[in-house]
Design brief:
The complex is a heterodimer.
Chain A (H helix, E strand, L loop, with lengths): L1 H8 L5 H8 L3 E5 L6 H6 L2 E5 L11 H4 L6 H12 L7 E5 L3 H4 L1 H11 L7 E5 L7 H22 L5 H26 L7 H10 L5 H18 L7 E7 L5 H8 L3 E6 L18 H11 L10 H15 L3 E7 L3 H16 L4 E6 L7 H15 L1
Parallel strand pairs in A: 1-2, 1-3, 3-4, 5-6, 5-7, 7-8
Chain B lengths: L9 H14 L5 H10 L4 H8 L3 H19 L7 E4 L6 H5 L3 E4 H11 L5 H9 L8 H11 L8 E4 L6 H14 L3 E3 L9 H22 L5 H25 L10 H12 L3 H20 L11 E5 L10 H8 L2 E6 L27 H12 L18 H11 L4 E4 L6 H4 L2 H10 L4 E3 L12 H14 L5
Parallel strand pairs in B: 1-2, 1-3, 3-4, 5-6, 5-7, 7-8
The chains are: A alpha/beta, B alpha/beta.
Chain lengths: ~375, ~475
């Protein structure tokens, strides 16, 4: 089962998406965890988190974007321009960060030059950067506008009942992922970080019902495996978006096991549940906006530090790798203060800047991880 | 940071230099010329302003006065707010606070200090801030992080939703220095009812924050004085911009800096009104004579800068424009979108209107003003959406008869670097020669001033601009 999950995580397209499409169903991509997947699910659409995995060149990404931009959206644009995302019927762009939100213009303009790469539904979804009563109200309106746009374009109706059902299904998935967190945090770790991340990535790359079933089976399998990794140094990864399994494997090849993370292709995506007892749109707005674990939510440093502390304590980690993609100033700068504050509390930290995409810096990263391992051994 | 750089506070050094510079105009011409022989590192920047007569001298006075306010705020019992250039100052002055504008402090250090702000830029990285962050904030931020400037009581920015790297600088400063932080957050649209409601609610919340953090209260009479002064300034700026449409432009290039620099530091204060009045007088004289605002009174070409200017040491950017007889038609920082502004014709719904009837109308007016500050207005949404960057650049280029448009920014500007190639292509497709300069407006180490002028010369020659 893990092998199947790895297949999903190592490529953009996968057999679940193919089956879904073959059934005449729609797929809508989104680049950021601030898009409520439940809305798409309730519309009968497969929500698919956009990734740049498998990029081999940035010839298209660099044509539209300027030079000093994060390579994550550039890789997404590259794959879109190459036709790798031709299975998408729609895309929702958010202002997750500045590099990401400019994917809106770059993709649209690339679509004028390269035929067929712009999905029929192309939507800009604004997400506030603060949590207040009026920002939540604004976000509720934004979600309602998205609902109407989806209903109009895909000629479907998103009922309150369907939304409630989708929320329940997604909450089930989140609870299962939390169980995975529990297994990773146990003394005798029975799943490595690479496989754990593959599972988390799969959660946003396939139908959620299938994922929940697959994860339940996988968790039973993992628990029984007994292939413990006791004695290895326990690390936590913090920082920018990372769906690169090779990066995790490289770290673990140095004798560590990644037992926790606070990334958006990680625990950030399932840390909070959506309230199932209130109005579904209001509940979605509150859950998605209030989860201020991303530094795009300016002014919530202490909350994020506290979250890292709690995760670190629960997983009994030996050290933290604070990584950021080059030009990701939000994570990169906050990592600087995390390092100061966490080191002061006796938690060893290593800051690392890296590129997203093909792992071309293997030697440098390995050398730095080895040095960090020496320090904490 | 080198030990000697820690000898004096950054803001004190700026004040000391600028205060002496302002006084240098008090004597005779002969005394001034003799003085210039004794200050080899400062005479160029001093002369860049002094030779513009009264407006230049008034600007020096304004700079000196502003720096004095910053360094003596706490001694005078005033609270200090660390802010961004796109935070309109009137509300802070109405609260009897001193707004320390981080980007203005960076500009002053860049143009006045012999080595620019290099050491302060790098100090930020020493304490954990990314080297890829925007140099517009990083230049002066290093001094604040190192404790070499007045310690702010609060931090207020309005760039979330507009520019992450800008907002991130203030969020970092707040976390690093443990200072209360407020962010005005903007939605991607500007003119719809939802956006207006959000702007105003967020602004009212800012007022609550300031009251809670400083203990200061908002006095209606003081607010009205500041708001009325702001209205007067808006009218003067509109008149100035109207005159800029004339070919040749009667507006000296450096007035671009004077107009927005003065506003970012002292918008709402009488000292800025006096500067604008003096600038307008000179411009009217030039217009009556039918001459250009350049030193030679001739105009070969007209250039519009679609983002910001270049703040190299000694203000050589404006000198270069002047020497080449190119009228500086302003930059993005030049537009504030007050009602009646010449560039707002047919875009009335994008403007703000200042009303002074009641406390509430004044507060709403200031909220609307804040939401249309440079960058806050145009960079919030997709560059090609109505009222955004492309619209504003095209509108200004047509209105002011620009012969070319140039982009200068910083290496930290994810936002504009994410769309500037597209903007340039669109402008070119509409027949406007456009160039993107791969330089950093505040850090000559990215690309030297000479490299930048080479590129500009090449562009102007190749595109036969002004020929």
């Amino acid at each position: 089962m893990i092998a199947e999950i790895r297949d999903i995580a190592y490529s953009v397209n996968n057999r679940y998406v193919e089956t879904w499409k073959n059934g005449g169903n729609k797929v809508v991509g989104f680049p950021c965890t601030f898009v409520p997947e439940e809305i798409l699910h309730a519309a009968g659409i497969l929500p698919f988190r956009l990734r740049g995995v498998g990029t081999k060149t940035l010839s298209i990404g660099d044509t539209y974007y300027g030079p000093v931009i994060c390579s994550f959206p550039k890789c997404i644009l590259q794959l879109a321009g190459q036709g790798d995302y031709s299975f998408l019927d729609g895309t929702i762009i958010t202002n997750g960060c500045d590099s990401m939100r400019r994917l809106d213009e770059c993709w649209r303009k690339a679509g004028e030059d390269i035929e067929g790469i712009l999905p029929g539904f192309f939507y800009y979804f604004g997400v506030p950067h603060k949590v207040t009563d009026y920002s939540i109200r604004w976000f509720v309106d934004e979600i309602r506008e998205l609902l109407s746009a989806l209903e109009g374009h895909f000629e479907t109706e998103i009922t309150e009942q369907a939304l409630k059902q989708s929320i329940e299904i997604y909450n089930t998935g989140r609870k299962l992922l939390r169980k995975l967190d529990g297994i990773r945090a146990s003394d005798d770790v029975v799943i490595n970080g690479e496989d754990a991340m593959a599972i988390i990535i799969a959660s946003s790359s396939m139908p959620r019902e299938d994922f929940n079933t697959l994860l339940e089976a996988t968790l039973s399998e993992v628990k029984k495996s007994g292939a413990g990794m006791a004695g290895k140094k326990r690390l936590m990864i913090v920082g920018s978006a990372n769906d690169d399994l090779d990066f995790i494997r490289l770290i673990e090849d140095s004798g560590a096991v990644v037992v926790a993370d606070t990334m958006c292709f990680g625990s950030k995506s399932y840390v909070d549940l959506v309230d199932e007892t209130t109005d579904p749109v209001d509940a979605l707005a509150r859950r998605y906006l209030s989860h201020s674990y991303c530094p795009r939510m300016f002014g919530y440093y202490k909350e994020r530090l506290d979250y890292i502390r709690k995760k670190a304590a629960a997983a009994r980690i030996d050290g933290i790798i604070l990584q950021n993609i080059r030009f990701c100033d939000l994570h990169g700068s906050e990592n600087g203060i995390f390092e100061r504050d966490l080191e002061a509390e006796g938690i060893p930290c290593m800051r690392m800047e890296r590129e997203y995409g093909p792992l071309v810096e293997t030697g440098r990263i390995k050398m730095r991880v080895d040095a960090f391992m020496e320090r904490i051994s | 940071m080198r030990r000697e750089s820690r000898e004096y506070n950054y803001d004190w050094m700026l004040w000391s230099i600028l205060d002496h510079a302002a006084k240098s105009c008090d004597g005779t011409k002969k005394e001034y010329e003799n003085l210039c022989t004794l200050i080899p590192h400062f005479r160029d920047v001093l002369d860049a302003l002094v030779r513009h007569g009264e407006p230049g001298r008034l600007f020096l006075n304004l700079l000196s006065d502003y720096c004095q306010r910053c360094i003596s705020a706490h001694d005078n019992g005033k609270k200090v707010a660390l802010t961004s250039f796109c935070v309109a100052t009137p509300i802070l002055y109405a609260f009897d606070m001193v707004p320390v504008c981080l980007e203005a402090m960076t500009v002053l250090g860049t143009i006045v200090l012999k080595r620019g702000t290099a050491e302060y830029l790098d100090y930020c990285c020493e304490v954990g801030f990314t080297e890829t962050s925007c140099s517009a904030q990083r230049g002066a931020l290093g001094a604040f992080l190192a404790g070499l400037a007045v310690r702010p009581d609060i931090i207020v920015c309005d760039s979330p939703g507009i520019c992450d790297t800008n907002a991130n600088s203030f969020a970092f400063a707040s976390s690093y220095l443990d200072i209360p932080f407020y962010q005005l957050n903007y939605p991607p649209s500007l003119t719809d009812e939802r956006a207006t409601r959000y702007h105003r609610e967020d602004f009212k919340n800012l007022i609550v924050f300031i009251q809670e953090q400083t203990g200061n209260t908002l006095d209606e009479d003081v607010l009205r004085t500041v708001v009325e002064e702001t209205k007067k300034q808006d009218n003067l700026a509109s008149e100035l911009l109207e005159l800029q449409r004339i070919v040749p432009s009667p507006v000296p290039g450096i007035y671009d800096l004077l107009l927005y620099g003065g506003k970012f530091m002292t918008g709402g204060l009488k000292i800025y009104t006096t500067l604008l009045e003096s600038m307008l007088e000179t411009v009217k004289r030039n217009a009556e004579r039918g001459v250009s605002g350049t030193t030679s009174s001739r105009e070969k070409a007209r250039g519009l800068f679609c983002y910001i200017d270049h703040y190299t040491t000694n203000m050589r950017f404006w000198d270069w424009m002047d020497y080449n007889e190119i009228a500086h038609l302003g930059s993005l920082l030049f537009t504030f979108w007050q009602e009646g502004a010449v560039y707002a014709e047919d875009h009335e719904n994008e403007t703000y209107r200042i009303e002074t009837d009641t406390m509430d109308t004044m507060i709403d007016s200031l909220a609307d003003q804040m939401s249309r500050m440079p960058m806050v207005k145009q960079i919030r949404g997709p560059y090609d959406a109505p009222g955004m960057w492309l619209d504003d650049s095209l509108g200004a280029a047509r209105l002011l008869h620009a012969d070319f448009v140039a982009y200068i920014g910083t290496m930290g500007c994810r936002n504009t670097w994410g769309m500037v190639k597209l903007l340039a292509r669109d402008l070119e497709n509409r027949g406007i020669p456009t160039m993107v300069l791969y330089v950093d407006a505040f850090d000559d180490r990215i690309a030297s001033w000479e490299a930048m002028t080479d590129k500009m010369d090449e562009f102007i020659a190749l595109r036969r601009i002004g020929l």
